[in-house]
Design goal:
Radius of gyration of chain B: 24 Å
Distance between the termini of chain B: 32 Å
Order of helices and strands of chain B: HHHHHHHHHHHHH
Number of helices of chain A: 12
Helix content of chain B: over 70%
Strand content of chain B: under 5%
Order of helices and strands of chain A: HHHHHHHHHHHH
Number of strands of chain A: 0
Oligomer: heterodimer
Radius of gyration of chain A: 25 Å
Helix content of chain A: over 70%
Distance between the termini of chain A: 8 Å
Largest sheet of chain A: none
Number of strands of chain B: 0
Chain lengths: ~325, ~300
């Protein structure tokens, strides 16, 4: 198993290198100039100096190399130093990836915005899982019942209707008409008292439910299918003939086996928490990672876009690996040799 | 007498020549959702292609006296903040949305089938092509779509004109980033089918390789291709509206359903119907296409058919 993980990690390195190069190249060939928005009165020499200070004048391979070193060596060392106080190497001359828009390190921007994304999108993912598993179990156990038919229909609607529509409808209903929840997510709100806590919960209800419902509709279909696959297998009949209660058969024997594919699916879905948050954050004006990306794209802030996109790619590759490993751990029939 | 002819009729139907596609059709009809989906999808296609001819209102016509109207006789779905007729815009936008969905799905389908067949059939290309597929699957697609639209929008606009340029860009970009699942499924099926006896037989009588692919392999993998085609349409329509919703899709003077929805969100307190209509139609289209895909999957699965 450990050998397998090491092998997979080694394969992941060239994959990530290719991806980082693709991302870099797309942005490198981008037309557009960060000094283009400066006033006309700025003389050309100053313009040139600004361009050099941003590191634009250099050839492609050097820029790529610098960015890669900054991303994969300098920034991790910085994080190590800040969080554990371990200092390695020369801290003074270590260059960092700087945003063109704010001139501050990109990683700091990301660290600032991660909590909002994790709270809103992570909670909705959790809610989706908690809704999908019981619904899927009941649907499969009572196949073709009224509950199953309604559940299948709702799930189909749930994943066909895009979140940017359900989100906007929720805003019309609950913010504009009923005035129950605020329309815009206020990130400056700090939870210091009970009142603020209530406000925080209120503003989180809509984004979390809208996205959670979408996740649940996808997962419940898989959960239902997975349980149906298991229900007619021999080991279920054996368990029943041993005289185990129906409850134990379903909740212990069937559920554990059916969860195996669903757990891997959940692991594969975790990177989409970050990437897929782009739309949800845009609807409810949450200033998380997705919004940072949109702002950076609109402002042609290339270092930020590069770093964020590559970070998403790393998460995808990492969780693919985790999904495969977890699958092997949960299912003893699968051996990686 | 009547009952007699009725039973005669059914006897005639029973002895009718049974073909695979007849069976598929019979199974497909049993799936109620899929049948409703077909009707809804055909209705939407007819509405957006014939509708503008019948309705005859220019979607770009501006009437400042009739701003932000609710439904009235002259404007059945109301108007927007500068007096565009919402129904005319919905019809025009639907044409673009459906055209994007269908053509992007077609590109993805072509690429996916091509890469899948080549990877499955040519052993030396299997490894590299599947690595490529894996890399494409690990790319964060939505951010990359957004970035490339921002970057290439202006050059393409000057090259092909504002409308064609953005249409080409979005269709190609969605198509190029959504072929991977089709390729994987097709490759798996090709790998299993090329070991079958009838392929060996074709080889042994000297059939050329491309002939084997077109005559023996492609017809046998048609069902997964059809299913992924329907899912591809739904996916492309959603992606296009998501891009437009983020303000990085079609320009406001060239509306699609996603763009109309995006423009409407700033006015939800005045005219909520501007959000509801495009949203409902995106949802209906995607839902009907997904149901068609579901029905096709059941109908094309020989283990389920004939039960």
């Amino acid at each position: 198993m450990i050998q397998y993980i090491i092998r997979r990690l080694l394969i992941a390195i060239p994959t990530l290198l290719v991806i980082s190069f693709v991302i870099f190249a797309i942005l490198y060939f981008a037309p557009g100039d960060p000094t283009g928005s400066l006033p006309m009165t700025v003389p050309p020499e100053v313009r040139q100096q600004i361009r050099e200070s941003l590191g634009i004048g250099e050839p492609m391979h050097i820029r790529y190399y610098k960015w890669l070193v900054q991303f994969s060596i300098n920034e991790p060392l910085n994080i190590l130093q800040h969080s554990f106080g371990i200092t390695i190497g020369d801290t003074e001359n270590r260059t960092r990836i700087l945003s063109w828009a704010t001139r501050s390190p990109v990683i700091d921007l990301i660290v600032e915005r991660t909590p909002q994304t994790l709270w809103v999108v992570g909670l909705s993912f959790l809610l989706g899982i908690l809704m999908a598993i019981p619904i899927g179990i009941v649907q499969a156990y009572r196949q073709y019942s009224l509950f199953d038919q309604i559940g299948t229909f709702v799930a189909m609607v749930g994943f066909s209707v895009p979140t940017f529509f359900t989100g906007v409808v929720a805003i019309i209903l609950f913010s504009v008409q009923l005035k129950w929840f605020p329309m815009i997510y206020d990130t400056t709100l700090e939870v210091t008292s009970w009142n603020n806590f209530v406000l925080q919960v209120k503003q989180m209800i809509m984004p979390v439910t809208v996205l959670g419902f979408y996740q649940a509709s996808q997962l419940s279909r898989f959960m239902r299918a997975s349980i149906l696959d298991n229900l007619n297998l021999d080991y279920v009949r054996t368990a029943r003939s041993k005289g185990r209660s129906e409850n134990a058969v379903l909740m212990i024997h069937v559920l554990r086996n059916s969860l195996i594919p669903v757990v891997t699916l959940i692991a594969l879905g975790i990177p989409t928490i970050f990437g897929g948050a782009i739309i949800t954050e845009q609807i409810f004006r949450v200033n998380g990672l997705g919004q940072l990306l949109i702002i950076a794209i609109e402002g042609a802030d290339i270092p930020t876009v590069q770093t964020l996109t590559f970070l998403f790619a790393i998460l995808i590759v990492l969780f693919n690996l985790i999904a495969d490993v977890v699958y092997g751990m949960l299912d003893p029939r699968i051996r990686y040799d | 007498m009547n009952a007699n002819t009725a039973s005669m009729d059914s006897a005639v139907i029973e002895t009718e020549h049974r073909t695979m596609w007849n069976d598929v059709w019979r199974q497909f009809r049993k799936h109620k959702g899929a049948v409703v989906g077909v009707f809804v999808f055909i209705f939407i296609i007819i509405a957006v292609s014939v509708g503008p001819l019948i309705y005859g209102v220019d979607p770009q016509a501006i009437d400042f006296k009739a701003r932000n109207l609710g439904p009235v006789w002259a404007h059945p779905l109301g108007t927007d903040n500068i007096g565009h007729d919402t129904l005319a815009q919905m019809l025009a936008g639907g044409q673009v949305s459906l055209a994007v969905g269908l053509s992007a799905a077609l590109i993805a389908l072509f690429l996916g089938t091509l890469i899948g067949v080549v990877a499955g059939f040519v052993k030396s290309l299997d490894g590299p092509l599947m690595r490529l597929t894996d890399i494409f699957l690990s790319l964060p697609l939505l951010p990359l779509l957004l970035v490339s639209i921002m970057l290439f929008r202006d050059p393409l606009r000057t090259m092909f004109g504002p409308e064609k340029g953005i249409f080409l860009l979005i269709v190609v970009i969605i198509g190029v980033t959504s072929w991977m699942h089709t390729a994987r499924i097709v490759r798996g099926d090709v790998l299993s089918i090329k070991e079958r006896e009838f392929v060996t037989a074709a080889h042994s009588i000297g059939t050329r390789r491309h002939r084997i692919v077109f005559r023996h392999i492609l017809p046998n993998i048609l069902s997964p291709i059809m299913v992924s085609a329907t899912l591809g349409i739904a996916n492309a329509i959603i992606t296009e509206s998501a891009l437009s919703f983020l303000g990085l899709g079609f320009p406001p003077d060239f509306p699609t359903w996603g763009r109309l929805l995006f423009d409407g969100t700033n006015f939800i307190q005045i005219t909520p119907s501007r959000v509801i209509w495009p949203g409902v139609f995106i949802a209906l289209t995607v839902l009907s296409v997904n149901y068609i895909g579901d029905g096709l999957r059941d109908a094309l699965d020989p283990r389920l058919r004939g039960r």
